[in-house]
Amino acid sequence: MYTHSSLDEFYQRNAAPLPEGISREIGHVNVFETEKLFDKATGKRTMPYSRRAYYKISWLRGKSRAEYADKVINIQENALLFATPKIPYHWLPEDSNQTGMFCIFTTDFLAPQKSGTVLEELPLFQPGQLPVFQLSPQEVSEIDYIFRKMLKELSSDYKYKYDLLPNLVMELIHYGQKLQPMSALSTSQNASQRISSLFIELLERQFPLDSAHQRLSLRAPKDYADRLAVHVNHLNKVLKEATGSTTTEFISKRLIQEAKILLKQTNWSVAEIAYALGFDDVAHFSNYFKKQTSFAPLTFRA
């Protein structure tokens, strides 16, 4: 199961300096040389590619693989990988010679008023895409130049460097969109297990609900299937085989579990709980809860 990490946790875990002069109002960006990043706890080199609180563009050097829902992308030497917080994946090194560079940035750093582009509308970050691209020696040279220019700007005293850096990030993004995707795709023997694991992760990542104004973004089986880039029937089939429950049953069980927690441990109204859990009205939620538990929400709370 993959872990979730915020930007603060990223910097706490790794021996990585926080950029000076950047404020929450303009978002966050930073660039790292992989071989210079170390885990504080173990002292070992680390490449934290499984984070989800921000976007990443990674230049991978070394043999490794990236696992998505039902596909595996094998990386033999040099590749460019684009990661979005919304699409889970797992990166695994296959030898000790792992170098390269990567940048991390938040959505607000590339807000439309800065770049003229909405990140989630770009093909690279759409569900169903496999945004990993093999790089030729010439492309490696060009990617290296962009990353090192970003490093140079970050360490400079230039007053407007945070106006310039979004352009360099967008240059990397558009560079990737011009590349052809790698063809080294394979279906692993445990593809069904990965789909089930990623589905559960997507489901669990939405909890706990911290505010009555927060609302589940993934509610129906098709929402999860779209995010995992698989057909909803296929998701239902592999989940049934792996867990014994259908997608609907799995979602329902988790919704009821969260509803019970909110009823017992918060002072939210039933209407607020219904809204947060994705129900359109209180009556629908109340009937749903009573059908699953034999109790009305207020009776359960009492």
UniProtKB/TrEMBL annotation:
Signal peptide: none annotated. The keyword NAD does not apply. Residues 222-302 form the HTH araC/xylS-type domain. Keywords: DNA-binding, Transcription, Transcription regulation. InterPro entries: Homeodomain-like_sf, HTH_AraC. PANTHER family: ARAC-FAMILY TRANSCRIPTIONAL REGULATOR, TRANSCRIPTIONAL REGULATORY PROTEIN. This is Helix-turn-helix domain-containing protein.
